[in-house]
Design brief:
It comes from Aquibacillus koreensis. The protein has about 350 residues and is α+β, with helices and mostly antiparallel strands. The chain is about 15% helix and about 35% strand.
Amino acid sequence: MVAKYVKFLFLIFVVLVITACGNEDEQVTENETEPQEVEEVEEVEEVVEQEPAEPEFEHVYPFTGEPTNEDIDHRVVSVMINNAPAARPQIGLTKADVVFEILAEGNITRLLALFHSEQPDMIGPVRSARPYYFNLADDYGALYVHHGAAKFIEDMLKNGAADYLNGMYYDNDMHLFKRGDLRKPPHNSYVLFDGIYEVATDKGYDITADHRPMTFSTEEEVSIQGDAATEVSFDYGSSNNVRYVYDGESEKYLRFNGQEQSADLETEEPVQLDNVLILETAHAVVDDQGRREIDLQSGGKAYLLQKGKVQQVDWANDEGHLVPVKDGEVVPFVQGKTWINVIPNSPGLAEVTIQ
């Protein structure tokens, strides 16, 4: 009996143990967690917009004040350009950095154009030499290109007054000078720019130079003084009226001879100027051909046109450069192209009309 009772208790114990193990397995199974998939988060780099860097330029053109990465050691070229009515409109004039307009004989002006930052294929019509033009060319360090000269003027050049190329010795050789078909001599001689440096080298002239720069303000420094001037005009003579009209959109002056706008014969591109200096000085007729001597040394009164404004200044010869001066200080030119009109001091600035 006791044995049966013991056996019975043993069976109950076994059942309890098995049940407990089963519950433990279920508990483990229920409590087990399957591994969770972790979503990968892509790291997004924050893009910070950089302000465009200011362009860095290595050089500044000496006769426009404009920055460039082009080499600037080539020598400036000056060309004696015909401005008689029969010679207008000219070719290449819109590319000149600086133009001097001065009376030659009678009431007809000629133009001394300096080419450095731009080099047009062809320039002209080219005319004969005058001392005050080639003296200016030499003062600015330029090669002087002309076509013809009186013997005494040619002798001055041969004796070293300036480094010159005379088209009379290269007339229509198609390498340096060519004759145009649209006009008759002396209004049809044109210089080919590609030949200038080669012929100058053959003559032993330097074709590189470290030019003394003109005085320019930077864009940040521009502060134009003066009164509004949308149109300025004056006469070199009864048939030679010059006008400058300010174009507010381009902020440049357009030039007119009478009613004819100054533009390129081939491209029809207008002459557009950033600075106009109108200066008065003494003129004297010295021979029966009407040739003149003109005082470009003593200084005097002038008008300076910039950005639609005009101011009365003085002018001075600063080591060969003709510059505007106020209160004893050089007034900077605005970066860009410049035209300098030399007019007789009688009647001088009194005859300049400003609107």
